[in-house]
Amino acid sequence: MGVIYFWMGVFRMRINITMNKKNITEFKTERLLLRPFLESDVPAVTQLAGDRAIADTTLLIPHPYTEDDAKRWIRSHPKSLEDGKESPWAITLKESKELIGAIGIEVEPKYFRGELGYWIGKPYWGKGYATEAVGAMIRYGFDELGLNRIYATHFKRNVASGKVMQKNGMIHEGTLREWVFKWGKAEDSEMYSILREEYLRGT
Predict the structure, then answer these.
(1) Around Cβ 2, how many Cβ atoms within 10 Å?
(2) CA-to-CA distance for 5 and 203, rounded, in angstroms?
(3) Of 16, 141, 187, 196, which has the maximum CB count within 10 A?
(4) Which of 130, 148, 153, 143 is closest to 8 using CA atoms?
């Protein structure tokens, strides 16, 4: 797809998208490389996802999180691709190749929509990496997957995640009261979305 410019609130971000021999897309943003997960990522995933702060702000990551959990998760990705499903992308720093998080879209083809999910390791919070990665994934969802709607939710108490969505042009649709349970406690969730027509107006 070459070089593109993607609208993110009040600034533009340059993204390079290339395809490897297996037709798996790699995304290069200003500071990040989004790529498929590798078996060699197990130690880093275990360390980052094993932080209780990550489990506390995500719905499905357990705590404690073990190396076996990381292995099972990464080894499930090829099967997902074979089944025609989207698989999570590793978020890495472009210069150092350091793994810092994960991002992906769970697609519902029948309705041309996808749910965005992501996490960034605690040592990398507050540096704008999540905003950058989400911008690339939104571009992928609309331009490569042909989606009409991309949406995401976050725990009401996780205000930082909402700011990431806002910076990427996502619109707050409302509060889902006691939408999920985390560690036995009901959690309110905030719903955000962006539609294809909104994305195209901002590109």
Answers:
(1) 7
(2) 7
(3) 141
(4) 130
Residue 129 pLDDT class (50, 70, 90 cuts): very high
Q: Characterise 29 by phi-psi region: left (phi > 0), alpha (psi -120 to 50), beta (else).
A: beta
Q: What pLDDT, on a 0 to 100 scale, did the predictor assign at position 12? A: 34
| Ramachandran sector of residue 94 (left: φ over 0; alpha: ψ -120 to 50; beta: rest) | alpha
DSSP 70-132: HHHHHHTHHHHHHTT----EEEEETTT--EEEEEEEEEEGGGTEEEEEEEE-GGGTTSSHHHH
Question: Is the per-residue pLDDT at 69 higher than 90?
Answer: yes
pTM: 0.87
Report the top-level CATH class of 2-150.
alpha beta
Measure the CA–CA gap between 40 and 109, rounded to whole angstroms: 31
Determine the Cα–Cα distance for residues 9 and 135; give it in Å rounded to an integer: 10
Residue 113, token pair as written in the block: 């929509």
* Contact status, residue 120 vs residue 91, Cβ threshold 8 Å: yes
3-state secondary structure of 64: coil
- Domain boundaries of the chain, sorted by first residue: 2-150
